[in-house]
Specification:
alpha+beta; single chain; 6 strands
């Protein structure tokens, strides 16, 4: 099972102390992994539309500073992300994750980096490219753009929920307690 930190240490790593700018991104991705599992991925937009989000097949966790910085990257089609979970138990946080958003029968995947919120490859649902005579020549482009924008709305919604919790100390501490329990249980 490896060495694991106690619940108090895990909670201390997620307190409201001022940190470097990349830490907020790490906390967001770590929180998103946790929430997507405890909520079965279910979230909703401000308009009340339900969607799901899951951490998929590729995740990287990082801990330490300077020369002692350690990173563990886990990937695989049927990966249970055990090494990454072990990293969480040992104080690491998610620094990069492949996220899958779903709504109805549509699916989007994006790679998100914590340090600068850089979005890597974005895969949208397939857009029909066949056109009938008289169709708008911009229809394919507009449909693709709409799907990209929809994914951005999903990401904004989960980030807004995270920030609302993060800036409320009592709510964040409760979230950290639940996260600590999850890490210990799932690890």
């Amino acid at each position: 099972m490896g060495v694991s930190l106690g619940k108090e240490k895990i909670m201390a790593d997620y307190t409201l102390a001022d940190r470097e700018s990349g830490i907020l991104g790490q906390e967001f991705l770590t929180w998103l992994w946790f929430k997507s599992e405890v909520l079965s991925g279910l979230f909703k937009t401000s308009k009340g539309e339900h969607f799901t989000v899951f951490v998929e097949q590729r995740i990287s966790v990082e801990g330490g500073e300077g020369d002692s910085k350690e990173t563990a990257t886990v990937s695989g089609v049927h990966s249970e992300l055990r090494e990454a979970r072990l990293g969480l138990r040992n104080g690491k946080k998610v620094n990069k994750a492949l996220l899958k958003f779903q709504q109805d029968a549509e699916e989007w995947t994006i790679m998100l980096k914590a340090e600068d919120f850089c979005v890597g490859p974005l895969k949208t649902p397939k857009v029909e490219t066949r056109r009938e005579e008289g169709d708008d020549p911009d229809a394919i482009f507009l449909e693709k753009f709409y799907l990209i924008e929809k994914c951005a709305v999903f990401l904004d919604c989960v980030y807004e929920e995270f920030l609302r919790l993060r800036i409320t100390p009592s709510k964040w501490q409760e979230e950290v307690r639940e996260f600590s329990d999850w890490v210990i249980k799932e690890g």
